[in-house]
Amino acid sequence: MLDARVCSCHASSRPIPRVRAGAGVGALLAAVLLAGVAVGAVPADGQGRVFPGGAAAEDGPERDTVLVEDFEQSRPGRFPDGWAFVTRGGGSRSYEESRDPGEQVVVRAADGGRFVRLTTRGEVLRYTKRNGDDFKWDIERHPRLAWRWRALALPEGASETGENDTGGAIYVTFGTDWLGRPLSIKYTYSSSLPTGTTVSFGTLQVVVVSSAAEDAPGHWKTVRRNVQADYRRLFGEPPPSHTVAITIWSDSDTTGGRATVDIDDLRLLPPRR
Fold this sequence. Notes:
There is one protein chain. This protein is mostly beta strands. The protein is 10% helix and 37% strand. It is built from three helices and 16 strands. The chain has helices spanning 25-37, 95-98, 227-235, and strands at 5-6, 49-50, 66-69, 85-86, 92-93, 103-110, 113-121, 124-130, 144-153, 168-176, 182-190, 197-201, 204-211, 221-226, 245-251, 258-269. The strands form three sheets. Strands 1, 2, 8, 10, 11, 12, 13 and 15 form an eight-stranded mixed β-sheet that branches. Strands 3, 6, 7, 9, 14 and 16 form a six-stranded antiparallel β-sheet that branches. A two-stranded antiparallel sheet has the order 4-5. Strand 4 (85-86) and strand 5 (92-93) form a beta hairpin.
């Protein structure tokens, strides 16, 4: 069981030791994502914490963006190109090899555009793009990450602090600390917790950026996060300049429920002027 505890709205005064961004990228990703599956542990005091604005979503036009994925090059009705399932040993497997009967990842077309739909029925799914292989991310030049998503169904009774299912999530994976523990931030679409809640599982930090308790179901929502600022606040030190990967995620295995979440337009953004 992971050592889970509630994260307050300010970074700890005792920073986690500096990361190593180099060795074992595949194994690192596997460790991060397998840890995410295990995050059914309840944080120490059983509650999340809400922090004020700071690194939250921002509005307005953007320039000098880097496209991670808009799914326009993938065929509707098929698994999206360029995404992979990371295995326990750090290798990759195809969608056909990795999928369980209760999960589906498929590109949809509507309103003149394409997006990916994640569906789980009592299962966990995760698919990854790696920095340097599938896209280029220099977090100093592009500290912010943006995407659009909507929740059509989220697992009932789920909470990042208890019945830990997350109908939709975006993982950002960094390097490891000096003990080899992977560091990551998981941005979630929560079934129940308010936007702004953070939950700490040590080297895995969970941030609720959308919530069924606040958003009307079925409507697209744009999220913009200053990942560099989030990392500083959550881990107490600057992030490495080279992030490892971005992962799209959905799970409903703890509650045995169902989740359907659409994701689109993942982009890297420059500093806010």
